[in-house]
Amino acid sequence: MTNIDNSDLLENDLALAEEESGMLPPLANVQDPGSGFNRLLNNTFGLSPLIPDSLERMLQSLVILEYYGLLVGTPGSDAYLVGRPNKDDTLLTRQGKDILLAVDPAAENPGLGEIDTLVGDLDIFEVFATDDASSIVEPDSRRWQDKFILGDAKQPYYLGSGAKDYASILDFDPELDLIQLHGRPENYLLSESEGNTGIYWYQEGEPELIAILSDVSDLSLNRDYFQFAEDTSEIEPTTTEIEQLGSPGVDLSVGIASDDAGGIYLTGPSEDSFWVTKYNNDGEQQWLEQPPSTGNIDTDSLGNVYVGGGLGDIEISKYNSDGVLQWTQFLGTFSLDNSFNLEVDDAGNVYLVGYTLDDLGGENAGDLTAGSMPIVSTDAWIAKYDTDGNQQWVKQFGSNNYDEAFAIVTDRDSNVYTSGWTLGDLGGENTGVYDVWVAKNDANGDQQWIDQFGTSDYDWSWDAAVDGEDNLYLTGWTLGDLGGENAGSYDGWVAKYNPDGDRQWIKQFGTEGDDTARSIDFDEQGNFYLTGSTDADFGGENAGSYDTWVAKYDSNGNQQWKQQFGTSGTDNPFELVVDNTGEVLVTGFTEGSLGS
After folding, report:
1. Is the pTM here over 0.70, yes or no?
2. What's the pLDDT at 235?
3. Domain ranges in the chain?
4. Angle at the Cα of 56 (from 50 to 62), degrees rounded to 5?
5. Given pLDDT bands bounded at 50, 70 and 90, which one contains residue 273?
6. Which CATH class is domain 298-590?
7. Residue 438 and residue 452: Cα distance in Å, rounded?
8. What is the distance between the alpha carbons of residues 574 and 406, in angstroms, rounded to a whole number?
9. Is residue 97 within 8 Å of 144, Cβ to Cβ?
């Protein structure tokens, strides 16, 4: 089927949608992002349609949106921003090449009864721009390719309730963005009304609305911006050296650890739960458990495994090597408290890191206001537990703006190194937008030093590691010239500090495409290994979309080798670890047949 001119089809569905939801989709006009996003805020959780200028900094962090249940992406390329099963979701992604999926693909009828709102390129610094000279301004206006998932190889989404379930895509750009559909072009109809386009599934009987594209017209189902999912179940794996596991839904492996006996532990979220599993050195699964939450994983010298994380409150759990739960502890305030990473030191103490909107381990340092009303901001925090789950201390620190922590590692003396990003002056003067910060705390939680660095653009820190001499290494991504000239878009970087906080060097690397560095670890010879993603040729020929790359460097940052692998879909790593035999283990997720 092709485009149809009868706008009554879409007009009738828009009217029904207005009656069912109380608002006429699409919610925003992408030609007027401030006005459109104000309407989105108002319709989502009742905020005034006129956002005061004094709320600019609060909304720029988008933490308040997370607090109200909206799902918000990072300023980088989000491989997947996934919605909640059987819920009306609002997915907001920002800079970078993002993939948005608001339904549960494992459901019998994905999207049934859901009305989901998808925004691919929310420029918060444009939406909330003010005349205040101190406002943060993004250096350059960029355009990014986003992908909206409306079907897979097995079935289309949003069927069964007519105009009572659909995806409302507010900022689809046919010159850049992609929409993934099930089936073939002849299974669909396009209809226009008042400059909006409706996408209809049509085989027999009445066409059924599955999506509304705001302020877009003159589309064709035969153009490249519509992609039709192929069945990859019969495709041979890229390599037999990769173990692939999963369910019919979305499964992400976000953490990996190993023990001295050769055990390998993985953890991550599935569509509606969290999981942790153990494999032996031959790749045979030993056990699988479901912790309350997870963000990362580590082991101690006795083979116990610790998982922790949380979005809202923080949970940490300890399992023995047989998968038997030893204890679970919870940490949080009445506000929003998130944890992204954890580390176990040589004595079996466990450290977590994240951010809070409240007073989790001290008084919040933020002093932002809306008129005369104070507005809280995020602070970074570190928490320490002993091996029996007893809390030893919680330390909180931050600037008067927004500060978040992602990386954590300990040295031989149980000093704790953490790193993340800041919009304020945390360890120095802010150089532009997101700056990197890095701090050292002793075993008692007392801060020894803190440093801040960045460019006039976006700079992000993801992971940290220490070598045998307690030198600290950081890695992340940048859109600027952080350790060399930017190669084109997102570049990776790695930096070395001595134990006293003096930076020894920083190096930047990348292609003309989108390249990020995600995780770092050391072997016993002092070499370090990095892994990340690329949509270009960064260690081999790109297989399609995002590939994974792995590289080895000596202690001075000289590259020894680099490899790239992937499928025609997205293949993104989350973490890398080097075991006690020198084997390099990487975990992540794939859209294709990457392993056996």
Report:
1. yes
2. 53
3. 3-228, 298-590
4. 100
5. confident
6. mainly beta
7. 6
8. 13
9. yes
